[in-house]
Specification:
Helices cover 23% and strands 20% of the residues. It is α+β, with helices and mostly antiparallel strands. The chain has 3 domains: 55 residues, no CATH class; 167 residues, no CATH class; 88 residues, no CATH class. A 6-stranded mixed sheet has the order 1-4-7-6-5-10. 16% of the residues are buried. It holds the Pfam family Transposase_21.
């Protein structure tokens, strides 16, 4: 049927081998079962966790012997840099990534993150970054899910997604525009130890921010140095505490008020309630003096000052983290 000189693959195996060169691969990184560390870089050759001494490999329940080098826990990382290069290799996608540079709001209304204060702040603080419209502005989202579709099962697997805000608003949150970067295995949620699993992802982000990578842009048929910045993280309240390094429960559960959070412990119901909302009213508001309407006190305090990013960074810079599950958490 085909000429004898044809070079088409003769088997399915040859087809797979040919297409493999065009695939976007992912990395399997072994992790400690107690979330203490990843077995990479200085830990790559180890057979046990340097902190908790747990085996890197699965252990047989019958004779407590290590199974034949089967990893006990695997983190799957989908490298972001090859994917960004692939995006600029598509003519249509490369054009859409420039949408933000020519569609600023003219009436003061926010229709896209390009109209936001955060976008303007980046332009003001790093003008050399803003001069290149092809540089990427990203948002990160992390949350847990049960991939067995059985809500009675306690298994919790976590995904870390990346959104590219250079796209127009009708493409930003399409499935094709959202990028899965990390798949963190269960069965328990990582909690504050999510920082351990974010290491390879953060390293690539830092490379994109500091040095950038050389990328070919199909739309302009030119080579440029691609850089990227993470604008913000998006998540529900519980992971917010893990990713932002602040309290989201207990006496200081308000991330805005911080140590100035007004909390009261109800001994009968065994719950913490949060009071002091009248602090945010105007100084001459009638509710400030209505002690009998509220908790029996007049409110004379002003609203607490909101900490800036620099304030938060200075407050937590000397904190030494002790990664990994504690002894009680391992037994649960």
């Amino acid at each position: 049927m085909l000429p004898q000189e044809n070079i088409l693959p003769k088997s399915l195996q040859e087809v797979k081998k040919l297409l493999k060169e065009y695939e976007l691969h992912y990395e399997k990184i072994h992790a400690c079962v107690n979330d203490c560390c990843l077995f990479r870089k200085e830990n790559e050759a180890l057979d046990a966790c340097p902190k908790c001494k747990s085996s890197r490999w699965k252990v047989s329940e019958s004779n407590k012997e290590t199974k034949k080098r089967i990893p006990a826990k695997i983190l799957r990382y989908f490298p972001i840099i090859p994917r960004f290069k692939r995006m600029y290799g598509s003519l249509e996608i490369a054009k859409n990534l420039l949408w933000h540079s020519s569609h600023l709001s003219q009436d003061g209304k926010i229709r896209h993150p390009v109209d936001s204060i955060a976008w303007d702040l980046v332009n003001h603080k790093w003008p050399e970054f803003a001069l290149e419209p092809r540089n990427l502005r990203l948002g990160l989202s992390a949350d847990g899910f049960n991939h067995f579709r059985d809500f009675s099962s306690p298994y919790s697997c976590w995904s870390v997604m990346l959104v590219t805000y250079n796209f127009p608003p009708w493409l930003c949150f399409k499935e094709d525009s959202m990028m899965l970067t990390l798949l963190i295995p269960g069965p328990k949620q990582p909690g504050n130890d999510i920082d351990v699993y974010l290491q390879p992802f953060i390293e690539d982000l830092m490379k994109l921010w500091k040095d950038g990578v050389v990328v070919f842009d199909t739309a302009t048929q030119s080579i440029f140095n691609l850089r990227a910045i993470l604008l913000w993280t998006i998540n529900d309240f519980a992971p917010y505490g893990n990713l932002a390094g602040c309290f989201t429960k207990g006496n200081f559960a308000c991330p805005i008020c911080g140590v100035n959070t007004c909390s009261t412990w109800l001994t009968s119901s065994k719950k913490t309630v949060y009071m002091g909302h009248r602090r945010f009213l105007e100084r001459d508001h009638i509710f400030r003096d209505k002690s009998t309407w509220f908790d029996g006190t007049c409110e004379e305090r002003g609203r607490p000052e909101v900490m800036t990013g620099y304030d938060v960074a200075n407050a937590v810079k000397n904190i030494k983290n002790d990664w990994g599950k504690k002894e009680k958490e391992r037994e649960m």
